[in-house]
Amino acid sequence: MWGPPPQRHDNESARPLLDPFGRAITYLRVSVTDRCDFRCVYCMSEDMAFLPKRDLLTLEELDRICSVFVAQGVRKLRITGGEPLVRRDIMTLFRSLSRHLASGALDELTVTTNGSQLARHAAELAACGVKRINLSLDTLDEDKFRKITRWGDLAKVMHGLDAAQKAGLQIKVNTVALKGVNEDEIEALLEWAHGRGMELTLIEVMPLGEIDGDRIDQFLSLSDVQTRLAQRYTLDETDERTGGPARYVRVRETGGKLGFITPLTHNFCESCNRVRLTCTGQLFMCLGQEDAADLRTPARASGDDAMLRQAIADAIARKPKGHDFVIDRRHARPALSRHMSVTGG
Ligand code: SAM
Ligand code: SF4
Q1: Residue 8, CA distances (Å) to 23, 67, 116, 238 in order
Q2: Residue 66, φ and ψ in degrees, nearest 5
Q3: Does 279 sit in the ligand 1 pocket, CB within 6 Å?
Q4: pTM, 2 dp
Q5: Number of Cβ atoms within 10 Å of the Cβ of 219
Q6: Cβ burial 155-180 (10 Å sphere, 16+ → b, else e)
Q7: Which atom of ligand 2 is the closest one to the Cα of 36?
């Protein structure tokens, strides 16, 4: 871990970040790398071109930008990617950011991972104050797992999951619902996740980035999945919201929680509390819009945080009211050209 971070805050007291629609920005998702050790079919093409290393924010720059957000009222940080746990020395960032948990400035530091590196990092994540993690897993079948992730090894992920549970981390499993691929496995995944004391959240495929296959073929409507599940289980509605596109039900038979993320609907935008930082320092104010603000230039231009704070304030002032995703059914093109691995899932 590098030495104590310099106190860069001037005397100007930090104001909470409010967007033009009065929404407080309290949640920052941070992609720390665009690289990954998997090539999930809905996320990446097999021959992805990755960003040159010099374009990436250093771990120190990531820490500094996150810390400016925390000083301005962000209460939750999610570290994502690409696969965040493949970035070299990533635990340095977790160790450093954990000071904001210790000071009470941050409520939650969390991570979204494919699980491949969890076996070696789970205990230290827990030691850094990480309490909950999201694990992405679309199937329990080894061959299918290989087909979906192209390069992944299910046994390794399961090993990581065991380590995470042993370290006391709470786990939410995220499953992308894929037509004709894992739609027949949803019940099995639900029983398995709830049986191990984990939440399960199903995600609809989003039109982000060029991939090799056809997303219209992959698309499975979660309202159809929910209708089917309701024939077998009692799904009790909850009014729990996260400020994001997830809805939750409680499954009476298993006692576990089941989430549905339907990003193509936009009825959650009114309560949106989040922005996303890419690994190159672009700040996206909305997952479904192209507009981004460059935070790397002000971060590199001055060691004082004033320019960075101003760039963040200007960006939040342009946060749009909502998004306009649509899977283009005629042209089968992505609605947005950037990949999820760049913006961070
Ligand atoms: N590599 C990590 C992982 O897989 O958990 C973190 C990054 S990944 C981009 C975050 C989440 O985005 C994963 O749960 C993944 O399944 C999801 N995802 C990726 N591409 C998607 C797409 N086109 N539509 C819906 N979800 C997607
Ligand atoms: Fe990698 Fe996550 Fe994308 Fe899969 S979904 S290719 S694990 S970044």
Answers
A1: 27, 10, 36, 43
A2: -60, -40
A3: no
A4: 0.91
A5: 18
A6: ebbbbbbebbbebebebbbbbbbbee
A7: 1
* Ligand 1 pocket test target in 111, 173, 176 with most atoms within 8 Å of CB: 176
Closest protein CA for atom 11 of ligand 1: 345
Name the token pair of 93. Answer: 């960032």
**Burial of residue 289, with CB atoms counted within 10 A of its CB: 0-12 exposed, 13-18 middle, 19 or more buried:** middle
Ligand 1 touching residue 110 (CB < 6 A): no
Q: Which residue has the tokens 């603000």?
A: 293
Q: Mind giving me the DSSP string for 226-268?
A: HHHHHHHS-EEE-----SSSEEEEEETTT--EEEEE-TT--TT
- Residues, the chain: 345
Instruction: Report which secondary-structure segment, H or E, holds 122.
Output: helix 118-127
d(CA 198, CA 257): 8
pLDDT digits (tens, 9 = 90+) for 243-262: 778 899 999 999 999 999 98
CATH class for the domain made up of 27-173+266-343: alpha beta
Q: Tens digits of per-residue pLDDT, 102-148?
A: 999 999 999 999 999 999 999 999 999 999 999 999 999 999 999 99
Q: Is 145 in the pocket of ligand 2 (CB under 6 A)?
A: no
